[in-house]
Amino acid sequence: MAFELPALPYSTSALAANGMCQETLELHHGKHHNAYVTALNGFVAANAALQGKSLEEIVKLSHNDAGLAGVFNNAGQHWNHIVFWENMSAHGGGIPGKLETKITEDFGSVQAFKDAFKTAATTQFGSGWAWLVLGTDGKLKCTKTPNGSNPLATGEGKVLLGCDVWEHAYYLDFRNVRPNYVDNWLNKLANYEYAAAQL
Amino acid sequence: MLLAIQLLSVLAHSIFATIQGGPDMLSRRALFRAAATTMVFAAPRLAAAQAVGPYALPALPYAFDANEPHIDAMTMQIHHDRHHAAYVANLNGAVKDYPQLATLAPDALIARLAEIPETIRSVVRNSGGGHANHTMFWQIMGGKGGNPSGTLAAAIERDLGGFEAFKASFNRSGAGVFGSGWVFVTVSREGKLALAPRSNQDTPLMDGGRVLLGNDMWEHAYYLKYQNRRPDYLTAWWNVLDWSKIAARYDQAMAGTLGV
User: Fold this and answer.
1) A67-85 pLDDT per residue, tens
2) Does residue B118 lie within any of the structural domains?
3) Which of A175, B36, B127, B229 is least enclosed by beta carbons within 10 angstroms?
4) Is a pLDDT exceeding 90 seen at residue B13?
5) Is the complex ipTM more than 0.95?
6) Which architecture does CATH list for A97-197?
7) What mean pLDDT do residues B212-231 have?
8) CB-based contact (8 Å) between B223 and chain A?
9) CA distance B197 to B133
10) CB distance B59 to B81 below 8 Å
11) Is residue A12 helix, strand or coil?
């Protein structure tokens, strides 16, 4: 069965007051994410070895396989964007107590977590993603991946939050100023309820 | 004005070369400050930050709106004044404690990445590449498109299947760059041409090659006007090329004098 573009869990104008305008969401979801899904379905249709596999299975099996680079790019981006839509909210920014406790334990403070996440997001050169993951050692950490890669592929842990730092995620709203996009994302858009639910 | 800046840039680098290894950092800085001041005088659009350090943001050789309607003025302004300026500032920051590196022209610097200290290598690769790529990019635009002629047209016919086939394969190559990157045409000392896509700000200069031309596939190059429609941007871009500038680069490549 073909992969499908999931509906946004909110309207395309829902995040405008929080720094992500309607046009950004329309393009990002309706064009960019949709193109990844279409391309992935094309690869699957042409490759019997991929048919019947879950998205997670395809991401893992195509990782670091040069012959499946196109598959990995599009499968990874499909997976990443599914997380991205879910981990934003019109009521974002507030960190539930359970997660705040864990963040303080592992980073020292909420601010130290935000600093680490921002560093990951702003030092990812070119297109990619910044992540908050629960590592296999049971500790939270911030990490980054290029292009369509993600912690599922690299085995760096379970994803709690993922922030898209491809320019298409922020160029209409923040132009070249990625640090401001990331600050705004952490403080006004990030859905920490979603993150806490992954613990 | 552009020629004056290029001459001064050469002058600044030759000043460094002359005093390379010299113990007197103060006079080296004073010499550079003098050169930088002259550059600001020659090109009043240069911002103050560009005079700090050995690498300088070249002035755009035409107005921001010169490539309208194919590339909008706002994109040109942000691309040059913010993105390219940031690469220059970051490159200067990386080499500030390595005066022996700062004597190198940008193309020579990034051709020696393996020799760059590991602590600054990735910044030099990314920002040095960004500086070199954008400097080339501004040079070849500002024209009215049209067709290449003379020996360059013959080389395109010989190596790339003719102008129409070349444009089609270049556009396909650009559309196939996943995420940020560039699509280039390399030129050998013998004048042989080849397509060369790269990721992020990497460039064939890092492999000892020479670049005839290239198009920026970072979303910042086209997002304000074309959004997700990179193929439309690729198609439109041919309309702003200045083939006389590209032909001059081709001649310089075969003469061994082509820089970035």
Assistant:
1) 999 999 999 999 999 999 9
2) no
3) B229
4) no
5) yes
6) 3-Layer(bab) Sandwich (3.55)
7) 98
8) yes
9) 12
10) no
11) coil
Q: Which CATH architecture has domain A21-86?
A: Orthogonal Bundle (1.10)
Q: What are the boundaries of each domain within chain A?
A: 21-86, 97-197
Do B179 and A32 lie within an 8 Å CB cutoff?
Answer: no
What percentage of chain A's residues is helix, strand, coil (to nearest 5)?
55, 10, 30
Q: Residue B16: its pLDDT value, please? A: 33
Look at residue B199 and tell me if it is in a domain: yes
- Of the pLDDT bands very low, low, confident and very high (cuts 50, 70, 90), residue A7 is very high
CB-nearest partner of A127 from B122, B180, B228? B180
A171:B219 CB<8 A: yes
pLDDT of residue B7: 38
Q: What is the 3-state secondary structure (H, E, C) of A97-149?
A: HHHHHHHHHHHCCHHHHHHHHHHHHHHCCCCEEEEEEECCCCCEEEEEEECCC
In 3D space, the residue among B230, B226, B232, B68 whose CA is nearest the CA of residue B144 turns out to be: B68
Radius of gyration of chain B from its Cα atoms, rounded to whole angstroms: 18
- Report the distance separating Cα B177 and Cα B180, nearest Å: 7
Edge-to-edge strand list for the sheet holding B211-216? B193-199, B181-187, B211-216
Q: Which of A32, A127, A148 sits opposite B228 (nearest CB)?
A: A32
User: CB contact, 8 Å: B245 with chain A?
Assistant: no
Tens of pLDDT, residue by residue over B37-75, are 333 333 333 444 444 689 999 999 999 999 999 999 999
Query: Whole-number mean pLDDT of chain A?
Result: 98
Query: A181-185, B37-41, B233-237 — which is least confidently predicted?
Result: B37-41
Q: B242 in a domain, yes or no? A: yes
**Between A69-86 and A34-45, two packed helices, what is the crossing angle to 10 degrees?**
140
Model pLDDT for residues B175-211, shown as the tens digit of each residue: 999 999 999 999 999 999 999 999 999 999 999 999 9
Q: What percent of chain B has pLDDT over 70?
A: 80
What's residue B52's pLDDT?
65
Range of the domain at B174: 150-255
The minimal CB distance from B228 to the residues A31, A69, A148 is found for: A31
